Amino acid sequence: NKSAMLNNCVVVNPPLRYIKFSDPRKVAELDKRWPQLKYSNFYGTDTQPLWRREFLKHGSCGINRYKQPAYFDLAMNLKDKFDLLSTLRNHGITPGSTYQLDDIEKAVMTVSIKVPSLKCIEKPPGNV
Question: Has the keyword Glycoprotein been applied to this entry (predicted)?
Fold first, then answer.
């Protein structure tokens, strides 16, 4: 098995477009699983900047197989199948505490095949 980063994969003609979700039920499903935390709830669900960016960046990789609705349905199904927060909690890892990277990787690997690609960010300075 070979792995690859799935972003900005292909240039398609016509260019890949994001079609804003208008069905309130679909918007609610997406918002529950993929909230747009940088924006107010109304702006995020009305303008959908996060979903647009993620689809245009990653959806290009499977556009021949997964058109936009299928891409988001797949993303939501994977989120439900691999509930990362529950997996971490089941291994004693909860938000707000400090853990060794190895412990987090081991917990994630109980539901995945590969070692996860984890990154630390510093926000605000001094808090990683």
Answer: no
